[in-house]
Amino acid sequence: MAHFRLSVIFTSTLLSLTPLISGACTPIDSNKTYDYIVIGSGAGGIPVADRLSEAGHSVLLLEKGPLSSGRWNGTMKPEWLEGTNLTRFDVPGLFNQIWADPVGVSCEDLDVMAGCVLGGGIAVNSALWWKPHPRDWDLNFPAGWKSSDMQKHIETVFKRIPGTDHPSRDGKLYLQQGYDTLSKGLEAAGFKYVLPNESPDQKNHTYGRATFFLENAERHGPLATYLVTAAQRKNFNLAVNTMARRLVRTGGSVTGVELQCRNGEGFNGTVNVTPKTGRVILSAGTMGSAKVLFRSGIGPKDALNVVKNSTIDGATMISEDQWIDLPVGYNLNDHVGTDIQIAHPDIVFYDFYEAWDEPIQADVDEYLKNRSGILAQVAPNLGPMFWQTIEGSDGIVRHIQWQARVEGRTNTSMTITQYVGTGTQSRGRMTILPTLNTRVSQAPYLRNAGDKEAVIQGIEYIRGVLSNIGNLTWIVPTVNQTTAEFVNLVRRIPSLPSPLIFHYFAPACTSQLPRSYTRTHDSR
């Protein structure tokens, strides 16, 4: 992995240096303007900033968290990575560490799990990487964004980030007993083996290996591609540990962004866009983008009144006659996930959590010397993935994706998560608290009878498939528990690990605002 240098803001000047913000809170240069200010350095913000700077625009990319990957001089790592240019975010075998040690990595102001570091979710997630089913585009996106329109763009992205299902450099896969056990049962039930990214439209009664945006057995993706090319341009700038407090605006015209330092570092003050032509792009995730809008006086009146009455923002909030009443936070969408769990004597568990501070030395050596071995695989040993489509009694076809992983209550357990994706109808709402933390006030889980029907029908079918595997035992649901009883009993909580219904949010609550307000929120 190479280190990269880029332009970052530093005490009122632009310098070319390694991407480290000063160790103290620093006033932003209020005289410097940017054509585009991009709030959030995740899967959306990084490519957008890259493409805009490529087009010749001056760009400031804001990240409220610290540096992550060693590629960008991140420093969070276990002792056995000291002396290397790798961090916890780079080594696949450490990707699950966020669940054991989220401090300084996850967002403190959200009630769901999300990454608040350079890269956002793409720095902390499992690096799963697949092409969408064409119906995802055709059902959910407007004219000009249908599958036929998007194919060339998908191919462009996958040329830069091809992904792999064999991340270890020796070409081997390790501890595949769990994958083998389940795949044999799936094949016996008539499931067809596919290479998922070569057949994105074959997602019914099929299975395959998980694909990851890894390269050289390290995290790859936008941090290693789009951010790299952006950083080579003088018109691109990055500020980390710098939170966008709110948009500075008059009516629907945004003139800048008010900044706040975080962790005693970063920048404060107001940074401005180029007069008349400058734009601000919110790409801070479903919760983060909505929070910025709320604090900027954009959203439902009940949420804006919470901000107005808060001790943090109340005295300085934009006046009520400038509020823009829009349904920010409504229409919250998610891929509801439900965990089931089995056990089989052939399954072999590897303790990736223990690898943080008490690793097996031979595994460490194999990874550091050769980028091979079990630590080159994504924790907690994912796969297989398999798919179903279910047509409900309401006539709506819902797509289901299953993701298995080797972890659970015993050392021979596997947890298998069912995700209901395209076709789901349930919606919820997120809002803001007096502390200005966000919360999900109405979870978008199984609020629609057809969604619940699909979850039950999908689990019931897979229980039948897997029960035909010799020596397999059920942990969750129990053998004496009906699927309907199980689904009715499990908790419905956003982004928490346990036998429950959960997952991560899709950006519906800020992406479908009326076109008449696109000066404030541009659908492009």
Automatic annotation (TrEMBL):
Record's keyword terms, sorted: Signal
Signal peptide: 1-23
Pfam families linked: GMC_oxred_N (PF00732), NAD_binding_8 (PF13450)
Domain Glucose-methanol-choline oxidoreductase N-terminal as annotated: residue spans: 112-336
MF annotations from Gene Ontology: flavin adenine dinucleotide binding; oxidoreductase activity, acting on CH-OH group of donors
Protein name: GMC oxidoreductase
